Amino acid sequence: MITLIGKSLAKEGLQFMYTGSARGCESCRFKNTCIDPLEEGRIYVINDVKGGEHSCPIHEGGKVKVVDVEKADIEALVDSKKAFEGSMIAFDIPDCDEDCPIRDLCFPRGLFKDDKCKIVKSIGKPDRKCIKGFDLSLVLLRR
Q: What pLDDT score does 52 carry?
């Protein structure tokens, strides 16, 4: 999908999270291209930076570039019984309130409860065990 991003950020491979529009975006003539294609709270990766640039009072340097983005694949921990490459799952957030070293993988940024995801890669067991005893596997998910 096509969107606009600050000139200084427009680099292939850059990942970013769309956190919502800034004040002034609603009346911008580029709104349909810039923010409308993006979903708040999702992580995107830039695949291609197009030529040309446009003025934008929001971004540093006052310029944006046209980029082609897609939703980024996200590393996450899932129940090992569901961790098969190629399978489709509904992402499930664990019932856990522990503050542990692997928490960010159990509650990854960019994924929401019940998101339909494909397991594109099964990476294996996490470096640390779950302190609640859940049997988890590290996977790469694609929405």
A: 85
